[in-house]
Amino acid sequence: MNNVKLIASDMDHTLLTEKGELPPNFDQYILELDKLGIVFAIASERALYTLEDMFPEIKDKICFISDNGGIISYKGEVIFKSLLKPADYQPMIRFVEDNTNGIAILCGLDSAYIAGKYKGNEAFLKTFYSNITFVEELDQVITEAAKLTIYFPNKNSKQYFEETFKPKYGYDFSVTAEDAIWIDIMNHGINKGKAMKVLGERLGKDSEQMMVFGDMEQYASYAADSNDHFGVLKSIEKILEIHGKK
User: How confident is the model over 190-194, as a mean pLDDT?
Assistant: First the structure.
């Protein structure tokens, strides 16, 4: 752990507890890492503006890998973005409307754009999109968008992913399914792993200097404690102890 210079953590089921709460005194730990020159990155499907709203006191001290890797911001500056073309996302929106029971969400850099007829879902969606703009015709919106997300209130995103979206879009785009209620469509090759590579190259950190936390099936050197037992924070504590800061 004494060689770690870049730490990244997923949000849901990893950094956040199952109640959606951050570990206690989280900001202070990140400030201590910053003093040591260790970069901490939040990696999430959430939008950049949502993440900045969630970490107001330290947003200029950390990195955000938002929109499933589509946008990377470091200390307040966007250093990478991969935008879907309107010619791609507009037909996708129409496909969602015509062929699924999902709700299309166009993930713009400044706001999430959603058809006005779905305003009844606003309270739930605000957890993930702190800025929401309801529009009359979503498939007519033109904006800088990192991804198209489909929300499935009936919790059947995995079925739609396997049977519909992966066959239709999986060859030309990155398509992922999360938590039975989400499908994300990004440009081809965009994901959190690619984002870590981009960030590492930008900061001059190689993979041997990285520590990454997540809840998906993956190869790992060791398993941290659970999110409800603040596993990420406990690992940060060990790093700070090595440097004599705890």
Answer: 93
Report CA 12 to chain centroid distance, whole Å: 9
- Burial pattern 90-115, b for ≥16 Cβ within 10 A else e, equals bebbebbeeebebbbbbbbbebbbbb
**pTM of this structure:** 0.92
Domain 86-187, what architecture?
2-Layer Sandwich (3.30)
User: 6-82+191-242: which CATH architecture?
Assistant: 3-Layer(aba) Sandwich (3.40)
pLDDT tens for residues 11-37? 999 999 999 999 999 999 999 999 999
Q: Give the CA diameter of the chain.
A: 59
Tell me the per-residue pLDDT of 72-107, one tens digit each, with 9 for 90 and over.
Answer: 999 999 999 999 999 999 999 999 999 999 999 999
- What letters, b where the CB count within 10 A reaches 16 and e where it falls short, cover 42-72? bbbbbbbbbbbebbeebbebbbbbbbbbbbb
Spell out the long-range contacts of 165-171 with Cβ–Cβ below 8 A and sequence spacing 24 or more.
Answer: 168/95, 169/92
Parse the chain into domains and list their residue ranges.
Answer: 6-82+191-242, 86-187
- Whole-number percent of the chain with pLDDT over 90: 89
pLDDT (0 to 100) of residue 143: 97
CA gap 166, 26 in Å, rounded: 37
